[in-house]
Design brief:
4 helices, single chain
Length: about 120
């Protein structure tokens, strides 16, 4: 096997990992935005259910994962602090998650561009 074939397989693995991370971060962003909205509007009707969805998402990720840490922080604030503080914590976590999404999308774009350059070489 030549080095290009090996690198091609590695590129595909990186791409698949980035796509999974992007999907997870998008889901976290949606859930964090929902938490933020519920806390700001003081809508507690399905807050426990929503927190459960966030906890399940976080639980599916490795302990040191950035998105998991952000979700855990927002959930902890929502369960231990007042609505105002918890809403701000959810907002911060959502904002950082959006930054993470931007970074991941940029990485995917660069990887795709390099793959395109390799294909044309």
């Amino acid at each position: 096997m030549d080095s290009q074939t090996l690198l091609g397989g590695q590129e595909e693995e990186w791409r698949e990992r980035l796509v999974r991370e992007i999907r997870t971060a998008e889901r976290a962003r949606e859930l964090l935005a929902g938490l933020e909205r519920r806390l700001k509007e003081k809508d507690r009707s399905d807050l426990e259910e929503h927190l459960g969805r966030l906890e399940r998402l976080a639980g599916s990720l490795p302990e040191a994962d950035t998105v998991r840490l952000l979700v855990d922080s927002a959930v902890k604030a929502a369960t231990t602090r007042g609505a105002g503080y918890a809403g701000s914590a959810a907002s911060r976590s959502r904002s950082v998650t959006e930054g993470r999404l931007s970074t991941l999308r940029g990485s995917l774009s660069r990887l795709d561009a390099f793959a395109g350059m390799d294909a044309n070489a």
